[in-house]
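HUMAN: Now follow token order:
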Amino acid sequence: MTDNTTSTNKSTYAGQGDLTRLPIPSLEETLERFIATVSPLLSSEEKETCKNEVQHFLQTDGPKLQNLLVEYDEKGRAEGTLGSYVEEFWSDAYLAPDSS
């Protein structure tokens, strides 16, 4: 039986920096997708309330938080500490041990 695998001394994430980075969607796009996702679950009244809350968020905290996300991503890219803006959150949410 022939072994077709090759062994190298590269680490699992050696090529991580060469991967295309995930783009950060605009705040408007994110909020539009949010509304489209939750709308089927809401009554007409709830849908209107949701749209109003989204508009309020878009005019208040949303842009500040979007800027913080962009800064976080740029800093991680510059320092080489993050492969993607979702990396740390993904690891915490899905890969961390469950404490329950």
Remarks:
- The mean pLDDT is 86.
- The first helix runs from residue 27 to 38.
- The chain has four helices and no strands.
- Helices lie at 27-38, 44-59, 61-79, 87-95.
